[in-house]
What we know:
Strand order of the largest sheet: 1-6-9-12-2
Number of domains: 2
CATH architecture of the largest domain: Roll
CATH topology of the largest domain: Archaeosine Trna-guanine Transglycosylase, Chain: A, domain 4
Structural class: alpha+beta
CATH class of the largest domain: Mainly Beta
Number of strands: 12
Number of helices: 5
CATH superfamily of the largest domain: Hypothetical protein
Amino acid sequence: MPEIKERPILFSAPMVRAILEGRKTVTRRAIKVQPHIDASGNFCVGGSNYGQDGYGKPVTKHFVNDCCPYGKPGDRLWVRETWARIRVAQAPDQEWVVYRECDNRTDYGGPWKPGIHMLRRDSRILLEVTAVRGERLQDISDEQAQAEGIIPVPKTTEGSHQFWRNYHLSGDGTFCVRTPKESFESLWCHVAGGSFPKGAAAYQASPHSWNANPWVWVVEFKRVTP
């Protein structure tokens, strides 16, 4: 029986909320060393050539199996999120872990800690990988965009068009877009820093921007008991 491996994965507060509410079951992460298709149509990464199938399409399966840093189906991901340790007067010799996404407190005597510093023992969310693949960022469907945890905007009337949150301009639902894919595009830009004027130029020049249409890891998961 293959060994089940556990790896950490970092999520922002809105995405932690989406996981807890059951709205988020997939995440996309840019592949660090971007693949390319050579002149013969082969799928290549660095110095490795993964070829193409019998229909002339680039083969990504072996690359995903060999190189995905998030594991394979059956492996697990423990979530890192913004957190803190607190002590209370009633039990000064004990510590509790609180999480920014559901314990928005400031009375614990110190600042919130970024998720990157969270230890495995303090993680409260465990995910099991159910599928992994590689694809272009802009190939995401409306259905997959919804599985990324984006938020629908409440309808004004029963028969009106369903709009979706625009994270690029505002994360509070003030602005909206027409399709789930557009909403995910705005989320990708916002998380990567493209929503902010000082970072917009650098973001647009990044090989991982939406317009660059990078190859991404697509990791589907389900929540399991820690």
